[in-house]
Design a protein that fits this description.
The complex is a heterodimer of chains A (about 140) and B (about 600). With about 140 residues, chain A is of the alpha/beta class. Chain A has six helices and five strands; from the N terminus they run E-H-E-E-E-H-E-H-H-H-H. Chain A has helices spanning about 15-25, 75-80, 90-100, 105-115, 120-125, 130-140, and strands spanning about 1-10, 30-35, 45-50, 65-70, 85. In chain A, helix 2 (about 75-80) links the parallel strand 4 (about 65-70) and strand 5 (about 85). In chain B, helix 7 (about 140-155) links the parallel strand 6 (about 130-135) and strand 7 (about 160-165). The termini of chain B are far apart. The chains are: A alpha/beta (about 140), B alpha/beta (about 600).
């Protein structure tokens, strides 16, 4: 499975990638991160390959899934795959209003559901205090 | 014990697992995490080891090299442009050789993603005549560190490990050792002037010995072959992994033979007859291509610049006729340019500088503050320390032409220590006249908040001698030296005006240290003054604040045609209030 994560510095892309890596720790993992000017609000791009691969990077049109933490990168994401998971305007508005730091945790919940990850296993990687936003993402519940 | 580690973490583990007990380096993306990880390991296992940042790469290399002369296994690392700074001692180290392991780890940046150049450090290994390993994935970075250290011990020769952004900042499952044990160190230096203090005649003999070592290493070096086609592609490093995957993906196993060089220099003579075509595909310069005289960059089959990503590799396979069709993916995407963090005191300093020194030439330097270019306060960015020497050259050139021109050199605190200081000494002695601005945020912010030499502690928090920038400058006899917080706008302007007057009257150097902790550090953010601001209804929508102050947190609302504050990113520093000439940005009482 080849996943590309895209977002801006400060949006928690790297932490999200670490969570996904932990999910698949018993499998062969290769990843690559670009965060040269991330601190300055630049693009953070993580390539994750789970399974039998040699290279840590993913080519255009070769990803199975693109995860967008920031819709600004929609066009870049679509170059990697047509299969994109992002946040709707409603979801973004809700998270921004309630707790912008939970963007990546919410997305992790959403992703766990999409990838059919065992709920308990995914939840076990998250701090107790962040369970609420994981659940919101997992259950698509932003009420 | 299997762990998912980054390339830099894997290299640090391998260094300490294989008895390296002296590591010296200067921070530089993408190499910096090697030292951070090595320090963590040192603390965890309470190892007797010296692991610390140095003042610059030349000094760092010399520190580690001499420890290897004293029989302590050592390593030096840097980013690719850092090796340019350290090249002088490296060239001689190849000739003298070492008495223990001495590994040079260099992180290249094909792309480039965070560097001034995309130079190929393997070429500097070739130039210095030392062997170089080129790992093709993260696990190999771990394995090759050990191999390189062993080779270094065996031949008493510096050995290079070349990594790249993709390897250093990649991750993979690595089987590391459960525990690292302390070893008994026994420093010893057998005096041997014919090596360590060799005169030119003796250098000839050392050179001869070096060539013998290289011949022996090359004769045992081999390529690994996969697949069975008539087209031979020779590769090394990460691009080998890309090619391997593409050959499988496009079922080219019977069209291509893929050869891999773990150690792309020195290569032996290899018989390449029997193949219809032989091409080298490597990042970023033609090292294998020139040694084995293959096709590649020189006949335009491989691009001469940029990273060899999957689509580039597909194009190469198409160019040599093994891939029948190739449709390039067009990416219709442009990112916004990077910008200083909201609340960054560099921005406040830049804003004040340009109010006073309107027509100056601004020679900038390497650090976060290269982004002063966004505010129009940086005209040159070259290499570490060049801001000061450039100001010297500009000043003398205009003087010789009898033209009046203000020059402002802008440098960070760590970069000042790195190589700015010698240039300042030269400028003062030779009576150059310019303003030197030192942006002192007391941290190496750009590369991940490493400590600077003014810190009263070392990287693990133990006592160190704090080096005072102002005391150094005072000792040089500078007649105008002021230290101010750039958040104090009024005082900043007054001081800048005074500096200009001083330079005009005395034709000497003036120095202003703008000191404010980096807001991207825990301590800096905690202590930063907080004042919530608002934009009032009288905002004309002229965007002067956005254009002139250039803060990410000032955004223009196209609907209302007014400026708004982005509360998600604003840290309430209130520095932008000076950027509105109509006083429409105010502080909430």
């Amino acid at each position: 499975m080849k996943i590309v994560l895209l977002g801006r510095g400060g949006e928690g892309v790297l932490y999200l990638s670490r969570l996904i890596i932990k999910l698949f720790e018993d499998k062969s993992i290769l990843s690559s991160e670009i965060h040269g000017m991330a601190k300055k609000g630049g693009l953070v791009e993580v390539h994750l390959k789970i399974g039998n691969y040699k290279s840590p990077i993913i080519g255009y049109n070769k990803a199975d899934l693109v995860v967008l933490l920031n819709n600004f990168f929609e066009k870049l994401g679509s170059a990697y795959s047509k299969n994109v998971i992002g946040l709707s305007d409603d979801e973004l508005a809700y998270i921004t209003k309630t707790n912008p730091k939970m963007l990546n945790i919410y997305m992790f919940g959403k992703l766990a559901k999409r990838l059919n990850i065992d709920y308990k296993k995914a939840l076990s990687l998250i701090d107790q205090k962040n369970h609420e936003f994981f659940n919101k993402g997992y259950n698509n519940d932003i009420q | 014990m299997i762990k998912v580690l980054s390339g830099n973490e894997a290299i640090a583990h391998a260094l300490l697992e294989n008895n390296v007990r002296f590591v010296s380096a200067y921070p530089g993306t993408p190499s910096s995490e090697i030292l951070t990880t090595a320090l963590k390991i040192k603390s965890k296992y309470n190892l007797n080891a010296y692991i610390e940042w140095s003042i610059n790469e030349k000094v760092a290399l010399e520190e580690a090299l001499s420890a290897s002369f004293a029989c302590v296994d050592s390593a030096f690392f840097c980013k690719q442009v850092g090796l340019n700074v350290a090249l002088d001692p490296l060239m001689s180290a190849a000739l003298t050789g070492t008495n223990a392991a001495f590994l040079v780890v260099v992180a290249d940046d094909p792309g480039p993603y965070s560097s001034q150049t995309e130079q190929d450090s393997r070429f500097l290994a070739f130039f210095a005549k030392i062997p170089v390993f080129d790992p093709s994935d993260i696990k190999e970075a771990y394995d090759f560190t050990k191999k390189a250290l062993n080779l270094s011990i065996q031949y008493q020769l510096p050995v290079m490990l070349r990594t790249t952004t993709r390897i250093s900042h990649g991750r993979q499952n690595i089987d590391i050792k459960e525990k690292i044990k302390d070893i008994e160190l026994n420093a010893n230096f057998e005096k041997d002037p014919s090596r360590f203090a060799a005169t030119p005649k003796l250098r000839y003999i050392l050179h001869k010995k070096l060539n013998e070592k290289l011949y022996s290493i090359a004769s045992k070096n081999t390529l690994k072959f996969d697949f069975s086609g008539k087209n031979l592609i020779i590769s090394s490093g990460l691009v080998y992994s890309n090619l391997y995957e593409l050959i499988l993906e496009h079922h080219l196993e019977d069209k291509v033979t893929l050869a891999k060089a773990d150690m792309p220099y020195p290569l032996p003579n290899i018989d390449l007859k029997g193949f219809e075509r032989t091409i080298a595909v490597e990042e970023t310069y033609p090292l294998i291509e020139l040694q084995l005289n293959t096709q590649g960059r020189r006949n335009n089959l491989v691009p001469k610049e940029g990273e060899l990503t999957f689509d580039v590799c597909e194009k190469i396979l198409y160019n040599i006729g093994v891939l029948k069709s190739f449709t390039p993916v067009s990416v219709d995407f442009k990112d916004k340019p990077p910008s200083l963090c909201p609340g960054c005191a560099h921005r406040s300093a830049f804003f004040a500088i340009k109010q006073v020194y309107k027509d100056a030439i601004f020679s900038g330097d390497i650090g976060c503050y290269t982004l002063g270019v966004n505010l129009g306060v940086t005209d040159t960015v070259f290499c570490m320390g060049a801001s000061v020497s450039f100001a010297f050259g500009f000043n003398k050139a205009f003087n010789l032409s009898a033209k009046k021109q203000h020059i402002v050199a802008i440098i960070g605190d760590s970069t000042f220590f790195h190589t700015g200081l010698p240039a300042l000494i030269d400028s003062i002695h030779n009576k150059a006249a310019f303003l030197l601005v030192i942006l002192d945020n007391s941290i190496v912010a750009m590369t991940g908040n490493q400590k600077t030499l003014s810190s009263p502690t070392d990287s693990l928090g133990y006592n160190a001698k704090s080096i005072s920038i102002e005391k150094i400058i005072q000792s040089l006899g500078v007649g105008f030296l002021e230290i101010i917080d750039p958040y104090d706008y009024k005082k900043s302007i007054e001081t800048l005006i005074a500096s200009k007057r001083y330079i005009d009257q005395n034709q000497e150097i003036a120095v202003i240290i703008f000191r404010h902790l980096c807001v991207n550090t825990e301590e800096g953010l905690k202590n930063n003054p907080v004042a919530k601001i608002f934009v009032d209804d009288n905002c004309k929508g002229c965007k002067l604040c956005i254009d002139e102050f250039e803060c990410q947190s000032l955004i223009f609302n196209e609907q209302t045609q007014k400026v708004e504050i982005d509360r998600k990113t604003c840290i309430d520093c209130a520095q932008c209030i000076y950027a509105c000439p109509f006083n429409s940005i105010g502080v909430l009482k």
